Amino acid sequence: MTDLVRAQAPVVMGVLNVTPDSFSDGGRYADLDAAVAHGVRLHDEGAHLVDVGGESTRPGADRVDPRTEASRVLPVIRELAAAGVPVSIDTTRAPVAEAAVVAGAAVVNDVSGGLADPDMARVVRDAGCPWVLMHWRGHSRGMRELAGYTDVVTDVRAELARRVDDALAAGVAADRLVIDPGLGFAKTAAHNWELSARLPELLDLGLPLLFGASRKSYLGHLLATPDGTPRDTDGRAAATIATSVLAVAAGAWGVRVHDVRGTTDALAVWSATGRPRLATSGNDPAPTGRTEGGT
Ligand code: PMM
């Protein structure tokens, strides 16, 4: 999987939540066969990785116990790995990550960036696998209260840099690390747009960057009806694709998305156009009209 981190961008990570309550696809793939079939479909559509998660991270969500989380994800990972589908495990728990790697997961996607479980760095170091360090300030139940920043981009950059330093100090190799701004995690809509507009400041950390805007609620608010009703999650596909292409054009290494086919199609267009890169300055200010929080 070194190859994956070093792979020529863009990497597409397809989302497979094996949960009853994730905000977008919760409940759809709770059954093993349905989950595996969907993971294989995402791979066939062009996902380089299928990201299997067993705990919802939607704002306000309660935690599940580790045994339940493991029992949701491990059978799916085993079957996907056996089918030749590269898998990442979306967890903040070291024992779940460790078991997932044994079951065949090739990447650990840790939305807490190593903060939630002090043993995660050891697991990743011993596995030698890539580790996605997402910007995070606390578990879902209380994260809305943690969305205070002086300057969101400067603060997220500094906090990610600390996560990277901690990972390196724990012996994880630098070429295993991927950073992620954590859109929607202790962020308002305005924060998400600001981070999206200023990705080069995060890329300046010199690590591959994963961008996960897919179907998040700030897109629903952007596309709200005049009376303020947010667009439903399935109706956010085109906006998600736009965010993904813009992130890749700004230099993101990969995107984490539910709609893999639409994303790979759009990125094929971007590639065929000669992979144009966004200028790093001169953007208009990010929109400030709608600032509702949540993922
Ligand atoms: N978002 C969610 C879950 N896991 N992992 C990374 N690295 N980045 C993200 O932005 C991210 C994530 C929440 O979205 P979901 O409920 O659709 O999975």
Automatic annotation (TrEMBL):
Where is each Pterin-binding domain found? 10-268
GO molecular function (one): dihydropteroate synthase activity
Q: Which reaction does this enzyme catalyse, per its entry?
A: (7,8-dihydropterin-6-yl)methyl diphosphate + 4-aminobenzoate = 7,8-dihydropteroate + diphosphate
Region called Disordered, residue ranges: 276-295
Alphabetical list of SUPFAM superfamilies matching this protein: Dihydropteroate synthetase-like
| Record keywords, A-Z | Folate biosynthesis, Magnesium, Metal-binding, Transferase
EC nos: 2.5.1.15
Q: Which domain of life is it from?
A: Bacteria
Give, as in the UniProt entry, the pathway in which the protein acts. Answer: Cofactor biosynthesis; tetrahydrofolate biosynthesis; 7,8-dihydrofolate from 2-amino-4-hydroxy-6-hydroxymethyl-7,8-dihydropteridine diphosphate and 4-aminobenzoate: step 1/2
InterPro entries in alphabetical order: DHP_synth-like, DHP_synth_dom, Dihydropteroate_synth-like_sf, Pterin-binding_dom
Keyword Manganese attributed: no
Q: Give the cofactors, semicolon-separated.
A: Mg(2+)
Q: What does this protein do?
A: Catalyzes the condensation of para-aminobenzoate (pABA) with 6-hydroxymethyl-7,8-dihydropterin diphosphate (DHPt-PP) to form 7,8-dihydropteroate (H2Pte), the immediate precursor of folate derivatives.
The UniProt family comment states: Belongs to the DHPS family.
Q: What is the protein's given name?
A: Dihydropteroate synthase
